[in-house]
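Lecture 7 notes: from sequence to structure.
We start with the chain below.
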Amino acid sequence: MYNSSTHFKNWTLSCEEDLLWKKLNVNIKYIKKLKETKGINDEFLLSAIEEQTIVQHYKIKLYDFCKRMVPKLPQNVINTAFHYYERFFLTVSVMEHHPKEILVTCVYLAAKIEEFFLPLFKFVANLKGNQENAREVILSKEIVILEYLNFNLVVYHPFKPLDGFFIHLKTLDVIKDPERFCLKAKNFMDKLLLTKAYILYAPAQIALGSLALAVSESQETIEPYLNILLSKYSKEEKENLTKKIMEIAQIKLDPQPPPKEVIEILELRLNNCKNQLH
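Predicted C-alpha cells for the same chain:
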C-alpha cells in the first residue's frame, strides 16, 4: 500500500520548503565537487533557481513529447515518466546530467515498468535527429536513472482513488450526478503533472483536490462529501487533510514556460559547463 511504499517514504516531501532545500543542497554539493576536482570557471555554474528553471523548461517538453508519442501512451506510463523525472532531479544536478537526455529515457523506462511494450527502435522513431545515437543515450542513461532512484520504481497514481471516490459518491446524496465531473477532474490531474503537486501530495489527495476543483468550477462545493469522507478522523487530522486538498484545488494550472531568452542563456552556460568537464 502507498503508506508503506518507497513512493511515500522516499519520494513524497512534506512541504514546498523541503523541496527547495533538497534542490539547493543538490546544487551546493555538485558545485563543491566540481570546484574540488575540475577547477571549473564560476561564470558557467548554475544556481539552484537556474537549475529549476531548466528542469521546468524540460518538464514542459516531456509533457509535449508524451502527448505526441506514437503509439499513444497510456496515462499511467505518462505519470510514471513524470515521477521518474522529478525524482531524478531531486538528487542530481542538471550540470551533471542534461534533462534532454533524461526525459526521453524516463519515458522509455516508464513504458517498460508499466508493461507497455514498446521496442526501442519504435520508441526512437519519435525522436528527431540521429536515432542510433538516441538508442545509445537511452541505454546508457537508463542504468544511471535506476541507480539514482535507488531502484525505487513503484509509482502510485491518483486514478484508482478518483474512481473509488466516484463510486462512493453514487451511494450518497451530497453531489447530484457526480459522473459529470469525472472527465474534468482527470484533465486537472493531467495538468498537475506540470506543477510540483505529485512530489508534495499523496495520490488520494491529488484525486480529491482535482475533484474539488472540478466541482467548484460548476459553482458547487465538495465540502459535504469531505465531511462524510473524513468523519472518522480527529479534528486536527481532518483540518490538515482538508487544507492539503484545498491547496491542490488552488494550484495554478498551465504554468507559464520560462522566457525563451532566459533558457537560451542558461543553455549556453550549461553547455559551456559541460564542455569544461570533458
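Points to note: The first helix runs from residue 6 to 11. The mean pLDDT is 94.
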